[in-house]
Design a protein that fits this description.
4 helices; single chain; alpha+beta; disordered N terminus; six-stranded antiparallel beta barrel; seven-stranded antiparallel β-sheet; globular
Length: about 280
């Protein structure tokens, strides 16, 4: 599995605390890091058609390149993703309803998107954003919205829950992002254990972390940022996290992957979207 990002924490903060925190790296540096350290994401699984109908693939067009990210459908016009996926982006192309990124059931577009007002690109706190499709999409077997946790679960930690993260992110050493959708199971860990790796300025109450459920090197990696972390309840997928960061040591390093807790932003999402 695959995500793109790692956090950028101040080395001075780590030294001041005298703790062996993992050094995070921004998304723009993730490609170079992967090339140097030959990170490999292993033990993920190809998705079946219709398995994650809420998963979308985002192509963010800047003035000079294209950014790959994931996202999730909240409704027929709103997409949830990571704030860092929007930095410098002018418009999005959105691939929906497929497990093969080159063969979308629907291809959407957006020029209407925004980051959370408190997003901090230094430590990735509040790394959450919303995209509004230029035209609402029609639901189908392969295109469906994901559920969000109900408001009464605001303080739930989901500790030790088995969750699933999916996306089109990198799966080989230094190759391109995956042409097919993949997924992997993640076991939710305590924030204290995650903060011991990344530091308390990165892992805050609105952060949720996990490790590979079957193997330590199961993770997200470049191209997965903004994608959904979900649990199964009553036969439905409930999104508890938005893929945000991994360790600068590499996606295969065995360190936790980090996500934004949707429970902490439920009121914000509702206020912006009406959902």
């Amino acid at each position: 599995m695959k995500l793109l990002l790692t956090v950028m924490t101040s080395l001075a903060l780590a030294q001041a605390a005298q703790l062996p925190f993992q050094r995070p790296v921004t998304v723009r540096d993730a490609q170079d890091l992967a090339a140097r350290s030959h990170v490999r994401i292993v033990n993920g699984f190809p998705a079946s058609p219709g398995q994650f109908p809420y998963q979308v693939f985002l192509k963010g067009f800047t003035s000079g390149d294209v950014r790959a990210c994931g996202g999730s459908l909240l409704s027929n016009e709103w997409i949830l993703t990571a704030a860092h996926c929007m930095t410098d982006v002018q418009w999005f192309e959105i691939v929906m309803g497929t497990v093969v990124s080159a063969a979308p059931e629907v291809l959407g577009y957006s020029t209407n998107f925004f980051q959370h007002i408190s997003y901090n690109p230094t430590n990735l706190n509040h790394d959450i954003g919303l995209i509004r499709l230029d035209r609402p999409v029609a639901f189908s077997q392969n295109i469906q919205p994901v559920n969000l946790p109900t408001a009464d679960r605001a303080i739930e930690t989901f500790f030790n829950y088995l969750a699933t993260v999916s996306g089109f992110g990198r799966t080989s050493d230094i190759g391109p992002i995956s042409p097919i959708k993949n997924w992997v199971n993640i076991r939710i860990i305590a924030n204290g254990a995650c903060a011991a790796v990344f530091g308390s300025s990165v892992v805050v109450p609105s952060t949720i972390c996990g490790t590979g459920a079957e193997d330590a090197d199961q993770s997200t990696c470049q191209g997965d940022s903004g994608g959904p972390l979900t649990i199964q309840e009553g036969g439905a997928s409930v999104q508890i996290g938005v893929a945000s960061f991994v360790s600068s040591a590499g996606c295969k390093a065995g360190h936790p992957s980090g996500y934004v807790r949707t429970t902490h932003f439920r009121s914000w999402i509702t206020g912006q979207t009406g959902i």
